Structure to design on (716 residues):
């Protein structure tokens, strides 16, 4: 533990430096392993999770600002991620859709121990969670990955999934032509030897073994497609649904699928699970992973990971970057919280001034 | 508005510097005026307040960490104060009981606009709120101020109240002898020409015109005193009750008093209002201030301001210090959130590296 007088500040720029040094594949492999381990070791008595709350609005722009809290009893800390979602950001401000910071507080004394960028971590951890879920539910011989929605999240979804499957082909679609047309250029950074092809949604659904939906579809405008085909197996990571009224998948497909939410309480409010009655919803991803062999038969069925995002994932990715930063001497310590010589006197600092001036 | 690429950071040290330059009396006068104005101008459609939530625990130490959110529609911002309460901090760690930071987010795009220390602001705004409430409910000829609980909050309570009343005498008590014995020395910084006297609680209650309770009394250990006397008037600022099960005032006194909470939804969960049925609770302080003349008769009665703390007060004090800091060129801008040349590609920063190395 650091001194309680300083807060460790880890900027997005430092996180970029860490990734540059370690390499994106090593980072993602490490994060997938940590996410798997974090899910398997999850203990509701140790990892106390609250469903996120927030403000949402349509002016000045459509958006929401939410806070996602988790307490880790053994680590003696509370983590709070504040995450903002503003779909017009790329076009209007050249800013990412998702902006975020993560704060960690010490439960010994309440000190703000660390603040770090949450933009890159959010994107990476969402990818890692899909990889973990797809390893459990996806067909082992999966060769074709479908991607609907080609924004920032799609890059880390493809990256994470390509670390755990040996895909031959990626089929992608975005109704936004800028995202659609730039996708192949953008994914070059991943250095993948995979055939990548722009494809209409019905053919993506028809042909994919694993599918990721990560769109900014507006409230009440979903689903993204109708489901008429009758596939033997398909695992879907539904990443974009994270707001009341926002859905990506057709109910007809959900009805035929085993749907595993990341965090049930949240998924029934803002995930694909909004569309289902409680008896139609499967066990959450953590429960499924803990009893993995019970769920192997689902690899040859239709499955959906309803990924609304959990503060547990944020804790896992934050811990990874903080550890790496400290081992690499990156980041800085700042004095943010007020400290006084006399903790019982908010004005005690004035005594020093008085003494200095007399 | 600042650039969305940087976050304005205002440390406790900078806030100390501001107070040193402006002077504590000018700061408190400004804050009391702003608090009064903020309460009077409160509009539930513009100032959207959520009751605070948090984690509380008894290990590793008794404490809680809470978040207090407010959205200001016109200002296009969300403010989130994270506040920690750890009563053992002064003795165990030489840290203040209350540790806090305040963050402000822009609702145009979700950018974290400002982070500032919340320790000094919390202490000051709690004092200012008591001053505003006491001006409304307190007897205009109030000469004797009682203080039960002589920790950090007591200093700013005394300071704020001394700016709006012409007290002749302060009667104080703390069961903690360190706090009790150091109080007179600590309040010297206020430069008050008031007779200050350590006094047993029953005599404080008996003789005070205005009373502040700001103790760390443990859950289920309240109230601080029994009420047997029959006073004509007394206004109490009940500051310490801010946790389920934590109360300071006897129900017999509340039953005879007009009790005005700061934020009803919160006060019935963690304030003195826990002890009352809804029909026993008066209008909240904002409603009372807006119809002040309707409440003047209470100046000669028993009244209680059930001050659990509102994010609205935090917004008012944060805005004051941010404005002062910027006018004085204090504080710093940091690049915290990740920014990429390509907002649709979390890894786009790697292209630059590649280009640089080839």
């Amino acid at each position: 533990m650091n001194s309680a007088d300083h807060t460790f500040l880890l900027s997005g720029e430092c996180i970029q430096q860490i990734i540059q040094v370690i390499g994106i594949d090593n980072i993602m492999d490490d994060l997938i392993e940590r996410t798997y381990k974090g899910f398997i070791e999850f203990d509701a008595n140790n990892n106390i999770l609250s469903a996120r709350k927030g403000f949402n609005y349509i002016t000045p722009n459509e958006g929401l600002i939410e806070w996602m809290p988790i307490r880790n009893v053994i680590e003696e800390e509370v983590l709070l991620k504040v995450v903002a979602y503003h779909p017009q950001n790329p076009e209007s401000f050249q800013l990412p859709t998702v902006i975020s910071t993560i704060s960690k507080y010490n439960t010994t004394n309440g000190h703000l121990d660390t603040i770090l960028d949450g933009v890159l971590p959010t994107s990476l951890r969402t990818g890692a969670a899909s990889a973990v879920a797809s390893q459990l539910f996806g067909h082992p011989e999966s060769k074709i990955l479908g991607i609907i929605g080609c924004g920032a999240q799609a890059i880390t979804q493809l990256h994470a999934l390509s670390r755990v499957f040996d895909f031959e082909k990626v089929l992608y679609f975005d109704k936004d032509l800028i995202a659609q047309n730039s996708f192949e250029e953008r994914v070059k950074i991943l250095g993948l030897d995979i055939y990548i092809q722009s494809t209409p949604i019905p053919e993506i659904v028809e042909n994919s073994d694993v599918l990721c939906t990560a769109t900014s579809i507006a409230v009440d405008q979903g689903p993204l497609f109708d489901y008429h085909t009758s596939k033997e197996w398909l695992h879907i990571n539904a990443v974009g649904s994270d707001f009341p009224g926002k859905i990506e998948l057709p109910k007809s497909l959900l009805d035929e699928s085993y749907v595993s939410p990341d965090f049930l309480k949240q998924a029934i409010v803002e995930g694909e699970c909004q569309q289902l009655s409680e008896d139609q919803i499967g066990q959450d991803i953590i429960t499924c992973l803990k009893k993995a062999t019970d769920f192997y038969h689902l690899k040859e069925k239709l499955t959906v990971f309803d990924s609304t995002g959990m503060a547990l994932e944020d804790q896992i990715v934050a811990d990874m970057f903080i550890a790496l930063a400290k081992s690499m001497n990156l980041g800085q310590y700042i004095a943010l919280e007020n400290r006084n010589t006399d903790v019982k006197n908010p004005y005690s600092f004035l005594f020093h001034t008085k003494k200095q001036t007399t």
Remarks:
- Residues 7-121+312-348 of chain B form a domain with the ornithine cyclodeaminase, domain 1 fold (CATH 3.30.1780.10).
- Residues 342 and 348 of chain B are 6 Å apart (CA to CA).
- The mean pLDDT of chain B is 94.
